[in-house]
Each structure stands twice: as structure tokens, then as C-alpha cells.
Amino acid sequence: MAASMRAPRLEVLPSRPQTLWGWPAVLNFVLGGLGSGWYIVAVLAAGLERSPGVTAASWAAPFLVLGGFATVAGEAGRPLRGPWVLRRLWTSWMSRELLIGIAFVLLIVAELVFPLRLHRAQALVAATLLALAQGFILRAARGIPAWNVPIMPGLFLSSALLSGAGAYLLVESVAGRPPAPGVVVPVLGLVVIGFLAWIWYLRGSREFAFVQSVAPLRQWRSALVSEAGGHGLPVLLGLVALAAPAAAAPVLALAGALLIAGQAHAKAGLVRAAGRLRPITLAISLPGRRAS
Amino acid sequence: MTRWGMAIDLHRCVGCQTCTIACKQEHGLPPGTAWRFVADCEVGEYPDVRRLFLPLQCMHCADPPCVPVCPTGASRQREDGIVWIHYDACVGCGYCAMACPYQARHFVAHPAGYFEQPTPSEAAQARPGRHGVMTKCTFCKERVDDGLARGLRPGVDADATPMCAVACIAGAIVFGDLDDASSTVARLAADPRAQALLPECGTDPRVYYLGD
Description:
Number of domains of chain B: 1
Structural class of chain B: alpha+beta
Low-confidence stretches of chain B: none
Strand order of the largest sheet of chain A: 1-2
CATH topology of chain B: Alpha-Beta Plaits
Number of domains of chain A: 1
Strand content of chain A: under 5%
Helix content of chain B: 10-25%
Structural class of chain A: mainly alpha
Largest sheet of chain A: 2 strands, antiparallel
Strand content of chain B: 15-25%
CATH architecture of chain B: 2-Layer Sandwich
CATH topology of chain A: Formate dehydrogenase/DMSO reductase fold
Largest sheet of chain B: 4 strands, mixed
CATH class of chain B: Alpha Beta
Order of helices and strands of chain B: EHEEHEEHEHEHHEHEE
Number of helices of chain A: 10
Strand order of the largest sheet of chain B: 8-1-10-9
CATH superfamily of chain A: Formate dehydrogenase/DMSO reductase domain
Number of strands of chain A: 2
Mean pLDDT of chain A: 93
Mean pLDDT of chain B: 94
Helix content of chain A: 55-70%
Low-confidence stretches of chain A: 1-7
Largest interface: A-B, 50 and 49 residues
Oligomer: heterodimer
């Protein structure tokens, strides 16, 4: 491998956008992250106890996760074979994602019927694994340089937590239960960590194919939405809510909406704009010229 | 143990696309789908610019990234190394295409022909089971298997050899058993000039290219 890296590389077939995974795949990742993240944030904010926030997340999360699965199933060439996706649990993250998603939904239903801390804890673990599994799906895609990076599962978990925190802030604030500073401050910390993870991802590799693929995500328009709108502004609004508790509800609701929109934009960018097939390059020397 | 592989001599390839057409004909591939093709590349910088013909196809990797990601088990690898797709088990999710670094997987969404009505040839070769699923080069495993069953030697006897190798007008494509030290393909693969594409992906391809 070292020898091949030293040899001059010729790009013989340029990178081109992948066309098989479109908006349905984006929706699956967005809704899966939103549903799992919302449940995680709500349960952690309530300290594993039952609360109106947990109840709201428990009712919404299954619809979000299953809605994502249903949407992406429609993108497959043979959607009626969907259940067969569970056949390769020991090798395929797509199989694992479906199994974990189903387990997550069943555990939430169990928790709604039998509201035990144990069920909430189990559903919390399943939600975390679901967010990670979606990241591992992209991580295993060796043909897409922008996805095949080690940080991808962590990035998806971070994204799920941010969009989930957004849903939590939005719904709780609209319902007249604006989260207390004890919840808002950790959420702001999450946003900062999420921002750092996103920047780390965008700048973390100097491989040509990766840099070429993520270039659209580094343009100012994308940065304006994902970084300024999806991270910076929510932090600013969170600080305003902490400084002026009387205005907390509308301000936190807006911050929540921005967090959700920012993460949806980031995932859409990852799948659609950065989802480019690996260019075919040659590390070998060319055939020499011959006299004709 | 048999391990099928291919060696392609870039000196010999003239970019005629005969292998492309032979493959399409052999497998009845619809418009817009080619399991193999010859990339016509301009490489280098003035004044050292070259035209390079690079035949591309599934590399039948020893460690194929497309196989473990497949959620239904439709993507499979035989003991002889041939990577193939069991169409009846494929859900058409496209995950294998994302995992393949060689852009070698193809999705055939709908039945389509070159004209409004299918030609007699297209009608004869129609394969409804291949719609809505992923497809790729199979090293013409049916020809290889049928040939072996008839006592022929793949890579030596044309009837047991992949169509691209048979059709190549320049003898640039050589197929055979990499584990048979006496085979031409094994000798070419052992040549110091032989290299695989994208070795950094760690897939250990079974298609070798001979440059200088």
C-alpha cells in the first residue's frame, strides 16, 4: 500500500453523484435521528422518570422511526421484500438498524403499557443504538469517501441528540412547559459538542476524494444553515432564554426548531451533496509509447 | 482450490468496446446498463498527455465490501471467488452500490428496450427477475459452470470463458485460475507490472491490470 501511495495517481474515472439514495433515504435518517434523539433527551431530562415530556416523546418517536422505515422502503426496487432485510444481522448494519428500530418501538409500547424505569432504560439503549446504527450504515459504504470515515457513527449520534433536543425544546415550550435551566444548559453543551463534531468531520481528512466530496458542505451557504443556523443561533437563543426566563418559551421553541432544521439540512447534505462515488484512480504507470 | 481471476493488458487494449457489447449481448442488458465498459481517458499534462483505455468491471474482490453490507444476503461470494447476486433475494436497496469502490453495481429499475416494442432478441432475453434489483458482472459464471460440467477448461476453452475475454479482438483480457501456477492468468498476475485498482480500499481485487 505504501508503494501505491507513493506512485503518481491518475484519476481515470471521476467521482460522480450517487443516484440510488435520494430524499427517502434522507427522510429515514432525519426521522430516525429525530425520534431516537427526542426520546433520549426526554428520558434523560426526566432522570428516567415518567414525565409529560417523556410521554410526548414516547408517542411521537415510534411514528417518526417507522415513518422513516416506510419511506425508505418505498425507495427500494422490491419493497415487498422488505422483511428480508432482517436476514443478515451478523454482517449488515442495515439489518441491524431495522431490528433495533423495531425493538425500540416495541420497548416504547411496553413502557407506555407498563411504565417501568427498566423499560425506559431499555428503550434508551435501543434509541442510542439506532442512532449509531444509522451512522454505521454510512460508515460501511466504502464506495462513498464522504461516508466511509470513522467519525460517522459518532456524528449520527450527535446529530440525533441535537435534533432530539430540538424537538424536546420545541414541544415542551409550545406545551407551556419551557425546560428549566438545569436542562437548557446541558442541551447547550450538546450543541457545542455537536458543532465541534461537525467541524471535525468536515476538516478531519485530507484525502482528495473526501475533500472533493464534502466541498459542497463547506461552502458558505451550507455553513450558514448548518453551522450558523443549526448551531450558533440556537446557542445564542438558549443564552437569551437563560438570561430572560420570562421570554424562555418562545425563544426556546425557536431554538428547537432551528436545531431540527439544522440537523435535517446537514443529513440531506451528507446524503445528497456529499454522497459521491469514489473516483477510480490508477497508482500504476501508464503503458509506454510504442513506435507504430 | 480454484480461484477465478482476470488479467488485462493495457498495452493491448485498443478501446474498441467489443467486450462491452459482447457482455451486453450475452446477458441481455437493457439500455443504459453495462456491466463492463472501457473507460476512454485522457491522462497526464502537456506535453506528456496519453490516451488510456481502461476496461472496468466488477473486480470480484477477495474481500468484497458489497457482500457483508447486503441486508438480505443476496450478494454472495462463491468458494471460487466469484461475487454474484441472487436476484430472487435482492430487495434493491442499493447499499451494495454504495459499498463498492469500483462503481460496478447497477440498478435496473424498469424493463426497457431500445425501441417502443421489444425486438425479438430483447424478448428472447427478457429477464423480469432482474428488474428492481441490483445487477453486476458475474464473470459469466453460467458459462464457466457449464463448461466445467462438460470437461472444458475456463480460460482455455472459449465455451467456458467469460464473453468479454472471448470477444476481445486484441487478446488483452485473460481469464483463468489464479491458483493454477501454470495458467496464463496466474503468470500475468504474478508479473511485477500487474497492479490492482484502488489497493488502498483493502478489497484485494481479482482483476489485475498490466501497465509498464
